[in-house]
Write a structure and sequence with these properties.
Elements lengths: L2 E4 L4 E4 L1 H12 L7 H8 L3 H13 L19 E9 L8 H8 L5 E6 L6 E7 L2 H11 L5 E9 L13
Antiparallel strand pairs: 1-2, 3-5, 3-6, 4-5
Helix pairs in contact: 2-3
C-alpha cells in the first residue's frame, strides 16, 4: 500500500516496491545502481526499476551514490571524536557557525550538533597524533568555544545499518 512522505515542496508517494528498491540500492556495491540485478531479485522489469529509481532521485529520496572508502588503507589510521561546548545565546558562537568553520578542516569527517553537555561532536580521521594535534591548533583560536574534550577511537566495528523505509 502506498504511503505519503510530506516534504516542504511536495508530497512523496512511495509503495512497497519503492521501499524494496531503496533496500536493494543500499546493498549495491557500485557507484551506480545495478538495475538489471535489482529487477531480477525483485521480479520486476528493468524499465520499471529504472524509472522508479529516476523518480526517487528527482524527488530527493535518493541523493546520490557514494563509494565507501577504507580510510586505513589510505594511511588514515587515526580516528577520534572531539567534543565541543559553546557559549550559548550569542549568534556568532552558535553551533552552526562553528560547525561551518570546522567542516573546512581536512581531518573533519562529520560534525554533529547535539544536546546535552556537549554542543558539537566532531568526527575526525587522520594519519596520526600529529594530525590530531594540528586539528586542536586549528580549533583553539575559534571564537565561541567554552570547553573541549577528545577521545581516540580504538576500533571501528563495520556498520550494518540500512535505512528501512517504513
Amino acid at each position: 500500500m502506498p504511503f505519503l512522505l510530506f516534504d516542504e515542496e511536495y508530497i512523496l508517494l512511495m509503495d512497497n516496491l519503492d521501499k524494496k528498491i531503496i533496500e536493494e540500492l543500499q546493498e549495491s556495491y557500485s557507484l551506480t545502481p545495478k538495475v538489471t540485478e535489482i529487477a531480477k531479485r525483485l521480479g520486476k522489469s528493468s524499465t520499471t526499476i529504472h524509472s522508479r529509481i529516476k523518480r526517487m532521485e528527482r524527488q530527493g529520496i535518493i541523493r546520490g551514490y557514494k563509494a565507501d572508502i577504507d580510510s586505513e588503507k589510505l594511511g588514515k589510521r587515526l580516528g577520534a571524536f572531539y567534543f565541543i561546548q559553546t557559549y550559548r545565546g550569542q549568534k556568532e558562537y552558535q553551533g552552526d557557525v562553528i560547525a561551518e568553520k570546522l567542516l573546512n578542516h581536512p581531518s573533519v569527517k562529520s560534525v554533529y550538533n547535539t544536546m546535552g553537555e556537549w554542543d558539537l561532536v566532531v568526527e575526525l580521521v587522520g594519519k596520526d597524533s600529529e594530525d590530531y594535534m594540528e586539528f586542536i591548533r586549528f580549533v583553539e583560536p575559534l571564537k565561541g568555544i567554552k570547553a573541549t574534550k577528545g577521545k581516540y577511537v580504538l576500533k571501528v566495528y563495520p556498520s550494518r545499518f540500512k535505512l528501512r523505509p517504513d
